[in-house]
């Protein structure tokens, strides 16, 4: 019997009281146990032939593919696969439907988002089951997607008209030039999304594109297509014309470039490597692109941090969705003076987590999504240990819970050139580093090609803001890991450096789906010599006017 199996056998039958990342830690927890409530729904109860038949009507595809659940490896559904001709057909349909949608008043378009918001909250149980089955995540982490999508639906539902409405701007010549800035939809947006947040990063990110009057052709990851298709149906039920939302499915390297080839704008979320390919395709066609890419996010526990709260926050920040979250924390810098107290609590909380596959609340962490993810996690941990890192918690797979489960893992003594030090693991693995000097830790946190998210823990808000402003990351959370900034949908979210281009949320998250159009109406006098002025007099008149405009501080 291997160590892993021995530990699995010893812990699988143990039961512990319910825990959550903010609850007190049960005494004596040694390793994560399996959470397995007696009566829970199964994949067969949820993904019935009727459900699949209903959902696949949304796909333009003539081939055959399938998806699977990471919980057991079983096939979930047979799905259509799209050929390049199918992708062209999907764009043709979307293009035909888009002008009527763009002509619909913005308030009516936005009202669809508000109805979608209500329907999603009402029918959340259905999609929580699908998200869990397709991604293998714990139900609480699936619910984070419902929260994120409803926040975005409400925000753009309420604010779209203000973001998109005509704006008066100062003209070249005050009073004589009347300027209106308009926002025109791009046309048909091609959206390519990953598997890790299949509701939020598919339909959630498409909501502002629709509010701005675009049609969308979406390519979700095939393994999580049912979630995206379910949300498409719900959006149609909320009033979106079905033809403006087309879905294509298939292999990323085959179908993805076809989407880029036809789109008027590309919205991509996924790895930095694929993002570069997508950017090249968009550049060749001179269409705009937004790229939400990878990260190697740092959390800084300053010497005045509340270590109890920081330890609970670190569990959420590192292990939500089994760390398969672009904004989750993989590097943890702790001030030397609080490192022992923090680590004692963080390790205890991590060991008390419950792993599970049930379609019910109660597990603290779910599965990895695929073999490739598990291989990366195992490779990163094994290589680090072989080169001298110490495992403070976890460090083993848990096939007793499910074929792709891996324990939440804390590593100490990690240093270059261990892969886990600089590469994105995208799994439940965090490395702990101690520091003594704040300037030095800011430098170390910034020493990565990525710049997506960061987290700072301190009791002093001003100090937190000062440190945050020196971090090269698109979002920084103070006394939280990632949710505070991500959920604040009025403000932009996205990556610096290799973590991306462009932003979701806020004004940038909707205006990127538009083309700015400036309409200038010249009145009374042309921008040319007039009223008998010769060229020289006109030039002198304009020079005087320019000086006057600056003196009056006209904008
Ligand atoms: P991925 O890049 O492999 O795939 C993303 C999507 O692109 C999938 O739909 C895939 O089928 C498609 N694709 C693959 N090859 C393509 C190609 N040549 N052209 C066009 N499309 C192609 O990424 P993944 O493994 O699915 O997702 C994990 C990565 O996504 C991680 O790096 C993670 O950090 C990142 N991510 C970033 C954010 C963010 O908001 N910044 C959010 C979630 C995930």
UniProtKB/TrEMBL annotation:
<keyword id="KW-0560">Oxidoreductase</keyword>
<dbReference type="Pfam" id="PF00171">
    <property type="entry name" value="Aldedh"/>
</dbReference>
<feature type="region of interest" description="Disordered">
    <location>
        <begin position="1"/>
        <end position="28"/>
    </location>
</feature>
<protein>
    <recommendedName>
        <fullName>succinate-semialdehyde dehydrogenase (NADP(+))</fullName>
        <ecNumber>1.2.1.79</ecNumber>
    </recommendedName>
</protein>
<dbReference type="InterPro" id="IPR015590">
    <property type="entry name" value="Aldehyde_DH_dom"/>
</dbReference>
<feature type="domain" description="Aldehyde dehydrogenase">
    <location>
        <begin position="65"/>
        <end position="519"/>
    </location>
</feature>
<dbReference type="InterPro" id="IPR029510">
    <property type="entry name" value="Ald_DH_CS_GLU"/>
</dbReference>
<dbReference type="InterPro" id="IPR016163">
    <property type="entry name" value="Ald_DH_C"/>
</dbReference>
<dbReference type="GO" id="GO:0036243">
    <property type="term" value="F:succinate-semialdehyde dehydrogenase (NADP+) activity"/>
</dbReference>
<comment type="similarity">
    <text>Belongs to the aldehyde dehydrogenase family.</text>
</comment>
<keyword id="KW-0521">NADP</keyword>
<dbReference type="InterPro" id="IPR016162">
    <property type="entry name" value="Ald_DH_N"/>
</dbReference>
<feature type="active site">
    <location>
        <position position="292"/>
    </location>
</feature>
<feature type="compositionally biased region" description="Low complexity">
    <location>
        <begin position="10"/>
        <end position="23"/>
    </location>
</feature>
<dbReference type="InterPro" id="IPR016161">
    <property type="entry name" value="Ald_DH/histidinol_DH"/>
</dbReference>
